[in-house]
């Protein structure tokens, strides 16, 4: 409807302009009418015939202006006629829109009236239901009080059951930890000792080339195989295996392993030992770079055997400081005892 109204207002504008054209055209006709009136007067009144002079050139200009005036009058009248038709059509459409809108509003008013009636009926029903609900709620309150007492009793039993469950979970966790520890210990017992990553250990010991000797070995196959693995790593690292110095061991029973003999030991675990004329405390006070080369080599070997690339399962003594005995040998002594 707004579009029809705007179009109608536009045609009112053109109607107004057409009327202006008619008025301007009529004004432009005035010079010619004035000349014709004077000419008529000269022809009828003898006294004016020789007193009033009409110039031909001005008369021609007046006629030209009159032609323009006639043109504007024709355009203005035509414009008024066409604009009037358009205004009538658009006014009719605007009226149709107004009638439709009025009908729609009337229908909505009727619907609103019906909705209000339905709402009033629903409110009455709700009021009746509310009264019934009040009575039922009183009975429900009595039931709820009894239920609350029963729920409190259930809460107490639930708390007790929860505490029991927590204690059971704690016992289960302890049992699982104990089982895991037992399985780990069983795995440790069943797994033969061996070097985890011999190549890494070999590379780490190449910088500490020195002499070594095996000071003891337990007489079972597991200990012998571990000794042979250590011997291969040291040989690959460029270390030199030498014979046990005379009177170093009081054991007369020896094991023959490949091309060398090793005293039998009854000790448990793996040990790395070095000899020195200084005490262990005195050696610990010296900066590592200033220690004798064979001492540093013994420290490196013990640290390597106890590292992630060393012996698995781990051997307890390898985590302790280097064992130093009194003596003047520059060899590194190695003992491969029984698996703990």
Provide an overview of this structure:
The chain has 340 residues and is an alpha/beta fold. It folds into two domains: 1-190, no CATH class; 194-336, no CATH class. 66% of the residues lie in helices and 11% in strands. The protein contains seven helices and nine strands, in the order H-H-H-E-H-E-H-E-E-E-E-H-H-E-E-E. The strands form three sheets. The protein has a five-stranded mixed beta sheet with strand order 3-2-9-6-8, covered by helices on one side. It has a two-stranded antiparallel ribbon with strand order 1-7. Strands 4-5 form a two-stranded antiparallel sheet. A hairpin with a 2-residue loop joins strand 4 (254-257) and strand 5. The chain is elongated.
Topology, pairings included?
Layout: H1 2-44, H2 46-49, H3 56-190, E1 194-195, H4 198-205, E2 211-217, H5 221-236, E3 240-241, E4 254-257, E5 260-263, E6 270-276, H6 280-284, H7 293-305, E7 311-312, E8 323-326, E9 332-336
């Amino acid at each position: 409807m707004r579009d029809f109204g705007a179009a109608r207002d536009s045609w009112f504008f053109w109607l107004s302009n057409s009327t202006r054209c008619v008025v301007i055209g009529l004004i432009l006709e005035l010079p010619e009418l004035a000349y014709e009136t004077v000419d008529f007067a000269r022809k009828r009144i003898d006294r004016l015939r020789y007193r009033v002079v009409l110039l031909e050139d001005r008369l021609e200009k007046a006629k030209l202006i009159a032609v323009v005036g006639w043109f504007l009058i024709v355009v203005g009248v035509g414009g008024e006629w066409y604009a009037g038709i358009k205004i009538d059509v658009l006014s009719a459409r605007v009226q149709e829109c107004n009638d439709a809108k009025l009908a729609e509003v009337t229908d909505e008013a009727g619907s609103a009236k019906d909705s209000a009636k339905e709402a009033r009926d629903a409110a009455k029903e709700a009021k009746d239901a509310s009264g019934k609900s009040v009575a039922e709620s009183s009975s429900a309150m009595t039931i709820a009080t009894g239920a609350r007492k029963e729920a409190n009793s259930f809460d107490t039993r639930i708390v007790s059951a929860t505490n029991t469950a927590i204690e059971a979970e704690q016992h289960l966790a302890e049992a699982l930890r104990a089982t895991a520890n037992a399985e780990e210990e069983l795995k440790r017992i069943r797994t033969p000792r061996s070097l985890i990553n011999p190549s890494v250990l070999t590379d780490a010991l190449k910088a500490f080339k020195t002499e070594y000797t095996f000071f003891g070995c337990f007489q079972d196959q597991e200990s012998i195989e571990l000794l042979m693995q250590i011997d291969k790593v040291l040989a690959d690292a460029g270390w030199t295996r030498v014979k046990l110095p005379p009177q170093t061991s009081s054991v007369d029973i020896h094991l023959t392993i490949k091309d060398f003999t090793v005293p039998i030991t009854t000790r448990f675990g793996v040990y790395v030992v070095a000899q020195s004329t200084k005490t262990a405390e005195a050696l610990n006070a010296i900066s590592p770079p200033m220690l004798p080369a064979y001492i540093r080599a013994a420290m490196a070997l013990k640290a390597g055997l106890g590292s992630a690339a060393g012996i698995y399962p781990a051997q307890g003594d390898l985590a302790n400081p280097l064992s130093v005995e009194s003596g003047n040998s520059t060899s590194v002594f190695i003992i491969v005892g029984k698996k703990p």
